[in-house]
Amino acid sequence: MKAPKFDYIKAESRSHALELLDQLGEDGRILAGGQSLMPTLNMRLSQPGTLIDINKVSDLSGITLEDGVVHIGAMTRHVEVATSPIVAKHLPLIAEAMKHVAHHAVRNRGTIGGSVALADPAAEMPACILALGATLVVESINGRREIAADDYFKGLYETAREPNELLVEILIPSKKTGEVSVFLELAQRHGDFAMAGLACVARVSNKTFEELRLVYFGSEDRPTIGTGAIAAVIGQTCSDECKEAAAIALANDLDPMTNLQGSAAMKLHLQKVLTGRALDTAVERAEAT
Ligand SMILES: Cc1cc2nc3c(=O)[nH]c(=O)nc-3n(C[C@H](O)[C@H](O)[C@H](O)COP(=O)(O)OP(=O)(O)OC[C@H]3O[C@@H](n4cnc5c(N)ncnc54)[C@H](O)[C@@H]3O)c2cc1C
Questions:
Q1: pLDDT by residue (tens digit) across 156-214?
Q2: Ligand 1 pocket, mutate which of 14, 29, 35, 78 (most atoms under 8 A from CB)
Q3: What is the rounded distance in angstroms from the CA atom of residue 74 to the CA atom of residue 112?
Q4: Domain containing 39 — which CATH number?
Q5: Are residues 195 and 269 in the same domain?
Q6: How many other C-beta atoms lie within 10 A of the C-beta of residue 206?
Q7: Domain boundary residue among 173, 207, 228?
Q8: pTM recorded for the entire structure
């Protein structure tokens, strides 16, 4: 199928993009890398009247480290995030996850902002920024607003961003001393969207979990914090019993959706398996540092 007719405007600056978003309302749609938007237009799943192309707005991309926080501009391409020395050193969870995001061609065009704005429940970046306690910065003609990742994901492709707001950057606390992270994903083929996946950030001492954040994706309508599984493990020494307790608790944390990637029961089983693997790997990585 071909896309329905739409108008196209190239935003000359960030303020121009904000003005267009305000004027066009629900009828306007930001065009970033186009890797998700163009297929949905071609399949007629979406019919915006006007695309607002932000590819020439140069101050929306780039990666910097400021006072222990990594700033990633919304228009930063996946490939730039994947090859950034700042990300490799200060955000190892994201560096590990990026290897699972789509294929080279998609990573060359797709942007981290597009991924977070879209909020596909099987995407890697939303889970990572939730696990890392990131802050999303959005702007409209009325000013700038910061949204904690914990408050951002509202449902299937639904977020706390208003239609007249542009996602401009993501602020992610850099890795703290003693912190380890693990990213695990199961997909039908490498680079496909996840059947099940887990972003884990932990502090482990003598095989005991002192701090832990487990965020599951590819299961529910949004990335989900495994609060029961975390409570079952925190303060415990890693063991078969501890992993079993986490798996039992996870059945209450997650209510997976059956979809083309797999049944609800299979997804829950896979997430339990990934939880055990992530806990073991977190201990191994803590011992290796
Ligand atoms: C074959 C294929 C496989 C893929 N596999 C994966 C995968 O395994 N994992 C994964 O995470 N993704 C995958 N993707 C999607 C890819 O990562 C996209 O790049 C990403 O989802 C969207 O980024 P984009 O820059 O292309 O955004 P676009 O497609 O341009 O936009 C997506 C949506 O976000 C909105 N938007 C974009 N930027 C902003 C902004 N700054 N402010 C407000 N709204 C904005 C747009 O209006 C649109 O609604 C795949 C895509 C393809 C085609």
A1: 999 999 999 999 999 999 999 999 999 999 998 888 889 999 999 999 999 999 999 99
A2: 35
A3: 6
A4: 3.30.43.10
A5: yes
A6: 10
A7: 173
A8: 0.96
